[in-house]
Design brief:
220 residues; alpha/beta; 6-stranded mixed sheet; two-stranded antiparallel sheet; 39% helix; binds zinc ion
């Protein structure tokens, strides 16, 4: 369809099903063109996991990326997933190069309660929309408080030993995949679970990183 006709068709749809941009609230598409620009990924290494594996992230978690990620995760705005999936794919590709060798993707699992509340698993959904496949490796082994409500030290304690592997993982290498990295406590806990099952974490990739902690202070 030519772009103008396509735009007109979308506008006609918007009259029937009014949509607000998940980034700025403008009456537009799921993500308006201005917000799409703010979601163009810039995948770079922003820290390391405790085991030394690099963490690659595509976006700073503030402004538009934060608004769109929150809308996607907490308000059911799956229509806004496409640019996020693109950003995650970009981070995974750079992480896979850093990982130097064959790797599988391992998504950080969300709790069953969170998946039930949302009706979907946000990171799995982004991986799928990015055209990638993840191995089912980790499961949540105990309930934890929401990380975003905690300070750095409390985050470490909150997620320690909160994951376990479903199977032995000897000889397998992974790129951990998550939506947001803040202190890296969750990635560290996941990496520890993989290591204790005999696997190796070669890199980690996230859609976004929290800039309130300076990159050099991110241990993981
Ligand atoms: Zn917008």
């Amino acid at each position: 369809m030519p772009p103008l006709v396509r735009a007109a068709a979308l506008d006609a749809l918007a009259v029937l099903f009014p949509v607000e941009c998940a980034g700025c609230g403008a009456p537009d598409r799921a993500v308006c063109s201005g917000c799409r620009l703010a979601l163009v990924p810039n995948a770079r290494r922003i820290g390391v996991v405790d085991c030394g594996a690099p963490i690659v992230s595509a976006l700073r978690y503030d402004g538009v990326p934060r608004a769109v990620l929150l809308a996607f995760k907490e308000s059911g705005r799956t229509d806004a997933a496409k640019p996020l999936a693109l950003a995650l794919r970009c981070a995974i590709e750079v992480a896979a190069v850093d990982a130097a060798g064959a790797v599988e993707l391992c998504v950080i699992p969300s709790s069953r309660a969170a998946a039930r509340r949302r009706g979907y698993r946000p990171v799995d959904e982004l991986v799928r929309r990015a055209g990638l496949r993840a191995a089912r490796v980790l499961q949540v082994s105990r309930a934890t408080a929401q990380q975003k409500s905690l300070g750095r030290d409390a985050r470490e304690g909150n997620v320690r030993e909160s994951f376990r592997s479903r199977h032995p993982l000897h000889g397998r290498r992974f790129v951990l995949v998550d939506d947001i990295v803040t202190t890296g406590a969750t990635l560290n806990a996941a990496a520890a679970a993989i290591a204790s099952a005999g696997g190796v974490v070669a890199a980690a990739a996230t859609v976004a990183f929290t800039p309130r902690i300076r990159p050099e202070n991110i241990r993981a």
